[in-house]
Each structure stands twice: as C-alpha cells, then as structure tokens.
Write a sequence for this structure.
C-alpha cells in the first residue's frame, strides 16, 4: 500500500474511532475527551493498529488556530473583559507560578533534573485545556462566572506557556539566561503585537462581511481568518495564539450584525462539525501516543516511571490548588477596589473547583515532543524522554482522574444548578415577545381593517408563545394568498423587532452572549421558514 493510501486508511480509521467513542461517551454521559483518550490508549495495544505519531507542527499550525478561533468566537467579549483580572491571575500568574514551582521542585522530585530542566518541564505542562472541564461544568450547571473564567484562562495561557517554553529552551539549549527586563519586554511585544494583528484582521473581515451575503464565501473566510492571523503574527515574532483569540473575540461579538440568518446557521453547523472532528482527532491521538512515549522513556524501569508520574502529577495538582486561593483574593481586591466592579467574594467552594479543573491537553504534549533532540554543542537533550513521559502522564491523570471526579465534586459542594442562566433566558424571551406584541398593536392601528384577522392570528400566536404553547392556528380557508402574504410580511417585521430587542438587551448588559445566541437561533429558524416554500408532506 502506498504512503498516500496508507494515510487515507489511517484517516478513515481515526474518523470512525472518533465517531464510535463519541457515541459511547454520549451513552455513558461522560465528556467525550475522556472516553477518546481512554479509547486511544486501548487502541494503541490492538495488533495491526496503525501507528499515529503526533507532529507538533500539525498541532501548532493546523489544529490549534481553528480550535482557538472557535472557542474565542463563542466567548463573550463582555464577560471576558469583566473577568479579565481573574483570567490574568490564572493565565499569567499561575503559569509563572507553575514554571517556577517545577523549576525549584524538579531537582528534589526527579532524578537528573536541575532548575533549568525543571523550568522547561514547568513551561511544557503549564497550559490547560478547558474542553473537558467546561463540558462537564455546563452539563451539571456550574455557575457561569466560573465557566467564563476557565474558558478565558485556556484561551490566553497557551501564549504565556509557550513564551515560557521559549525562554526555558534558550536557557538550556544555548546557555543563554534572558534578563527579567528582556522577558517583560518580550511579553509586552508578544501580547500587544499579537492582539494588534488579530484586531486588524477582525476589522478587515468585518468590513468585507457587511458587503456580502453568501454562505459558502463567508464560511470560507471564517476558516481563512484563524490561519491568516496566526501565521501573520508568527511572521513578525508575535503571539499567533493571541492574534487568533483577538480576532475571534472581536468578530464573534460583531457577528450578530454582519451575518444573515441563513449564513449564521450554516456557519454554526460547519464550525460545530469541524471543531468536533479536530478535538476528536486530538484527544484520540493523545491516547495513541503511548507506544512512542514508552520508546522515548527507555532506560527507566516501569515502577520508577509510574512513581515519578504519580508524584509529579500530584505535585502539579497541589501547585494549582495552592495558587488559586491567594490568586482569587488578589483578583477580588483588584476587581472590587481598583476596577470598582460589583463582585462578591467567590467563596472557598468555587475557588476549589477552579483549582480542580487544571486539565492538560494536546498543547502540552505537542510542546514536549517539539523539544530539540540535541543542545547547541551537539550533546543529547537531557531527560527529553522523561519530560515527554511525565507530560503524557499529567494529561492522563488530570483528564481522567479530575475529569471523572469533577461532576460528583460539584454536586457535593452544592454548586450544581441551572437557575441563573435559565432565568436570564426566560426573562429575555419574555421581553422580546412583549416588544413584538407591542409592534403588532402599533401596526394594527395603522393598517386596513380587513387585515384584522391576520393581526388576531399573529397576536394569538405570540400570546401562546408567551404562555409556552406552540404554534398559532393556521389561516382559515378563503383569502389564502393575500392573507398569507400579509402574514409573511408582518411576521418578518416582528422577527426583526425581536432580534433588535434581544441585541439591545445584550448590548445593555442585561443578558449574556450565550442567551443571545440561543434566541437568535430560534429567530433564524423562524426567518428561514418564512422564505422557504412549505412542503405539504411535512407541514
């Protein structure tokens, strides 16, 4: 079999495995990343299973940009800015604390490690992946403020973690020791230039989007944006991660204005499928790396490897828990005293949950595999195999152990429930429907009396929706074409009022972007039904 055909077979096997394990995860009511990682581990031992080696370049330049962009697109800019102090304490402060903690403890926990190797290892494992944590959190109804902070942390800490890895590798490979001032300047440039590139791309794309309304073209543009922003930022040695995040946050917040209903539905469908497949490949590939990880870590006995993995994983979990409590206190003081935000002290239970959700993902493993095999003088990179094994172990422990224990932990702490978001959504639905009814009555007073039946029908429909009863009665026989046309015209006008009211509520800060998108989806579907011919067999 040729190399191309072999690659096709591997791709098909991976895609089928992703679908099968994801379906199993749904039946088990378990986050699919956990089942996919376990499934990949089991599949790695199946005789004849194709060996899939993780390529860091594919992860950083092919997989990471669209996943970051999708996550940023669905993140509320308002909530991100509101929680920026808390996010920064985790995405920057905790990353630095993790790197320094591992650099100091590495020589005590691991054989052959000095502070430089510890620095590199700490940078490798400092980044978190929020997919499993937030999927669990949303399912069990964890407070939205915690979910927003976790999602924001995972968006930003990739950049800080990779910057720390850049410093650590330079120290070890080239014998250079960057100064604190140089590090701060590099971080400022990395962040400012990356964000600037992302916002520039976002502004250009927004200008273009207002001038077209074509689903395939706009979806192609949305796929182009994360790669263009990432590569452009990397070209000027800025943060491609922050460029993608900035573009996604900007365009996600503006998409309600420039996406038509049909394009929004198409784009959501395409991106949902694409992010699911990419995430599926990523988590399945993590499990499939076990043979390569064991090959890299040859020379150490299995018992030693397990002991080092257990000690290091426990240390890393405790390190995050140790940071979250004082970090939360500092963030609370900044937000309440300096920023004058109306926030409450989160409490020990919420802080502990944030500390327990430090799950690692494929970025950590790709960072470990990307380490050079030799130093500048040609000697082998010390303990490279052990670093890869420890990173792999941390991913397994945090994803599986913390992921499976998170739901009962949330319930035991009394943090599960859906009241806040559901109340906000119900209030938004009530307000947009009342606004539509008000517009309906205004139009009725200005319209011809012979259209009274149309207005009565629509008013009844909206009142029934307010009372949670589906569907208004259909039009009576007679005057069908004129009545139907008027019904369509008035319905489109009312849907416009609903959409504008919901958007204004979001802009006024009365509802979140998540609630807005739920309402928009229903309005989009209703709008499409108005312009599509009715199939009599399905009506």
């Amino acid at each position: 079999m040729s190399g191309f055909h072999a690659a096709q077979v591997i791709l098909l096997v991976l895609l089928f495995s992703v679908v099968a394990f994801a379906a199993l995860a749904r039946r088990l009511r378990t986050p699919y990343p956990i089942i996919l990682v376990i499934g990949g581990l089991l599949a790695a031992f199946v005789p004849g299973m194709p060996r899939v080696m993780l390529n860091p370049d594919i992860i950083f330049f092919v997989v990471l940009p669209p996943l970051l962009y999708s996550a940023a697109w669905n993140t509320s800019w308002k909530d991100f800015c509101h929680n920026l102090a808390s996010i920064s304490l985790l995405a920057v402060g905790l990353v630095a604390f993790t790197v320094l903690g591992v650099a100091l403890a590495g020589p005590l926990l691991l054989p052959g490690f000095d502070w430089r190797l510890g620095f590199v290892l700490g940078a490798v494992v400092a980044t978190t992946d929020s997919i499993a944590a937030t999927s669990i959190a949303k399912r069990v109804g964890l407070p939205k403020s915690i979910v927003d902070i976790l999602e924001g942390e995972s968006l930003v800490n990739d950049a800080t973690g990779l910057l720390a890895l850049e410093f650590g590798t330079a120290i070890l490979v080239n014998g250079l020791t960057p100064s604190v001032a140089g590090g701060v300047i590099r971080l400022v440039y990395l962040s400012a230039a990356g964000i600037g590139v992302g916002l520039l791309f976002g502004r250009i794309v927004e200008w273009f989007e207002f001038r077209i309304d074509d689903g395939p073209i706009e979806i192609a543009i949305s796929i182009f944006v994360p790669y263009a922003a990432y590569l452009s930022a990397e070209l000027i040695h800025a943060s491609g991660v922050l460029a993608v995040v900035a573009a996604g946050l900007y365009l996600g917040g503006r998409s309600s204005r420039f996406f038509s209903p049909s394009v929004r539905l198409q784009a959501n469908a395409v991106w949902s499928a694409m992010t699911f497949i990419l995430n599926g490949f990523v988590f399945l590939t993590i499990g499939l790396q076990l043979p390569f990880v064991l090959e890299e870590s040859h020379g150490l006995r299995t018992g030693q490897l397990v002991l080092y993995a257990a000690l290091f994983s426990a240390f890393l979990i405790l390190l995050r828990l140790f940071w979250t409590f004082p970090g939360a206190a500092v963030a609370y003081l900044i937000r309440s005293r300096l920023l004058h935000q109306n926030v409450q002290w989160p409490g020990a239970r919420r802080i502990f949950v944030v500390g327990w959700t430090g799950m690692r993902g494929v970025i950590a493993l790709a960072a470990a595999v990307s380490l050079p095999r030799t130093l500048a003088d040609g000697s082998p990179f010390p303990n490279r195999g052990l670093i890869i094994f420890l990173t792999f172990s941390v991913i397994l422990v945090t994803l599986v152990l913390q992921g499976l224990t998170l739901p009962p932990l949330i319930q035991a702490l009394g943090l599960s429930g859906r009241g806040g978001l559901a109340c906000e959504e119900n209030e938004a639905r009530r307000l947009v429907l009342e606004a539509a009814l008000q517009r309906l009555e205004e139009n009725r007073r200005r319209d011809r009396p012979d259209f009274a039946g149309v207005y009565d029908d629509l008013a009844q429909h909206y009142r029934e929706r307010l009372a949670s009863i589906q569907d208004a009665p259909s039009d009576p026989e007679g005057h069908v074409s004129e009545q139907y046309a008027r019904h369509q015209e008035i319905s489109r006008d009312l849907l416009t009022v609903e959409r504008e009211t919901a958007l204004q509520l979001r802009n006024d800060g009365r509802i979140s972007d998540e609630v807005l998108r739920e309402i928009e989806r229903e309005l989009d579907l209703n709008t499409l039904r108005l312009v599509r011919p009715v199939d009599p067999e399905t009506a």
About this structure: Confidence is low (pLDDT under 50) at residues 468-481, 532-539.
